[in-house]
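USER:
I would value a second opinion on how I read folds in token form. Give me a protein, with the fold worked out from its sequence. Write it directly below this note and I will take it from there.

ASSISTANT:
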Amino acid sequence: MPKKKQKKRSRHRGGAQAVVRRELVPQPRVSTPAEIPDAYDDLEPWGPEPGPVGYSTGGAPVHLKFATGTLPAVRLSFGDLFAQERRRPIREGWGFTVELPAVLELLERIDDGRVSALDARSALAEAADLLYDTFRCFEAEDPGELRAMCRQAGGCALCDDRRPWFEGLLNTSDGLWARLQQPAKYPFAAGRHGLHETECSVVKRETPSDYSRPTGDVYVTALNAFSHTVDPHSSREDFEGSRNYPRFEAMTAQEARKWVLDRTGPKGGRNYKRCQRCAPAV
């Protein structure tokens, strides 16, 4: 039988089927936009619209209104393109994309005099500003710049988003502080590194000398510090200014014994430490 001819292998690495890999430049990303509030009359609800199969329904539709008429349902999206050549603040459009047919129609209206270029620019900038919170654009902002803008404005969407966490921290702090002021009733205190007596010098050193729940301008400053420095993946207690809040949990003798029992294994090992300075005897 005749022998089958063997295919010649390419001398090039990987052969003719070698794939050229391109290195992708990482870009800022944002989470899926939240549902758009009904209060925005000019903004339709987020989500796919009915239409022929294969039609793109991404982004969010915004009606661009002018004195001579409305350019309806212009699709804007955020997070795919961040042009370095024309970088500017996100609220001025950086990171946003606009559907090309709408841009062409807008240029036609400018060309025939129905819309001025200044009005077109203003309408697009207003659309980007309107979608800023909806698309959670603040997640792509530089943290330092975002904090500075927050201070100047007296608040921001990130502060509103993390306000419930901060309120929870304040509620906990109020309870911890009240107990720490009654060492006779709560003689033991547990911290991150173990068990102490409530009047231990370590507890006093790491507890603010005075504490009161922040209000007014002090509250705004404290919320800003929390919102813009907290690590979302931590216990949400590690942030700039956290030493202004009590951390130790003062306990009765009975609560302390349960605390020790919960951290003692079945074979007698313990998953906690006793302060070597005060050597609490529970």
Summary: Helices lie at 100-111, 117-130, 143-153, 157-180, 201-205, 216-229, 253-262. The two ends are 93 Å apart (CA to CA). The chain has a mean pLDDT of 80.
